[in-house]
Structures are given as C-alpha cells and as structure tokens.
Amino acid sequence: VQLQASGGGLVQAGGSLRLSCAASGRIFVSPAFGWFRQAPGKGREVVGTISRSGGVALYEDSVKGRFTISRDNAKNTAYLQMNNLKPEDTAVYYCAADPNLPKTPSWTKAWDYWGQGTLVTVSS
Fold first, then answer.
1. Cross-strand partners of 37
2. Residue 56 host element (H or E)
3. Can you tell me the distance from the alpha carbon of 78 to that of 91, in angstroms, rounded to the nearest whole number?
C-alpha cells in the first residue's frame, strides 16, 4: 500500500489549504485515515482521524473549528481542510492508514501505513 500526501505549500496567516492523502496499491477497502504533523524540533502529533464509516475525531484543541477531515471512498482518499491557518500550524503533515481505526490512534506505531509527508508553512 502506498500513501501519497499532497497539497502542502506556503500560505499567509489566515489562509487555507487542503491536503489530500490517496491510498493505492494492495489496497484494503476504505481504510481508516489519520493525519499527523511534526513541527521543527518537535515530535509527531496526531491532528485527527477519520474512521472507515466517516466518523471524525480531532485531537488538537488548537485546530478545532479550523480543520476538517473528510474522505472520498470511491477514490480511497482522505482530505484535511485547513482554514484560518496560523504560524504555529507550520509543520510537515503526514497521513497514515490502517484497515481499521486503531484503538490508540494518537500512537504513531498503531498505524501500518504512512505517506511521505507534505510541508505546510504559514507566514505571519
């Protein structure tokens, strides 16, 4: 299974970006997806997850109300819509996938498959 993350870039504070994560290869049907981010000098942290049935959980209080996770099962793709971006959102964003939503989704080792990461830079 390969995960291709895309959509990162440079944006001014207050702007928006939409990240995509496309799963391909020896694919299981409608996997659960997770979005993580890693800021410079910090560990990788979970942003949110979306289950196979579309249930969404956001783990970072700082992104609630600004970030939305969705999915297109026909395309085996998950999306992270990021609005009102702030400089502190600057990070490499990673997507992860698993046949089922892990019981401990914030634990990076719980996810079987990872994308290569896409850089989001928010200027002030």
1. 45, 93
2. strand 56-58
3. 19
